[in-house]
Amino acid sequence: MSIQDLIAVAKANQDQSEVKTGGDFEYVPPVAGPTFARFIEYIELGKHVKKYLGKDKPSASQVRVVFELVHPKNIKEIEVEGGGKKKIADRIKVDMPLSMSDKSKFYKLFKIMQAGRSDITHMAEMLNEGFIVIVKHNADEKNPKIVYANIWDGTKWDVQQPVQVDVLAGTTTKLPVPEPISPLKIFLWDNPTKDTWDSLFIDGERDIKDDKGVVTGKESKNKTQELLLSATDYPGSALNVLLQGVDLPTEEVKTIESTAAVQTSAVLPSEPKVETVAATVDSAADALAALGLS
To answer: Is residue 227 part of a domain?
Structure first.
């Protein structure tokens, strides 16, 4: 199945617009402030038990959304195994309950991204769309030296449509958001495929370090697949059935399937050329500057 086919399945199976009342490198958080972002991943994680105020909450469906920050200040080059370099972009990853309650984080984010477009009824339909997000920093409660980057302030999402409004002229101009560097990813818990499962695999291990930076052990990088396998509703699930007799992949899958684009207006290149990205980034940076967002 292509991404478009999976989006059609997701849209047919669940209307999220219906509200119910009620590589190895040291992590450095993205710089605080406004930036351009692309919505690149929608991953349903199955049901998990989460804690609230120190107590376990009932097992509930969880979802992961990932925004890739595509302003020049969020893009860097890293060394890769075997020599050479590649460009990577900062990301904002959010795991949360998959709830359509009008008070839930997920539904609030969906409504902001939907932006009044009633024909969009599932978040996956907006894969590859561009936004402006405002990154904020907050320190870890247990270790203030650890800083996290967030686009949720506890009550609302700092996510906006990429537009510039001229009140005096009465005009609204859509800003050019740079194309994503990473491939789009989608995983539907009730409709898994071998391709979408393989796309989540990350090979290798990373060092575990203490507060002083001393290596104390190793851990797998394949966190997402392991998280799905630990879901409370995994036994007997569609994923369980899919994986019966199927081994985990032995090398990282770079993309799901060849696809022209999720949107007809945006083509996702398999290997973005640096000069093409740079040209787009310049115009985007100018647009941010005009808004006082650079």
So the answer is: no
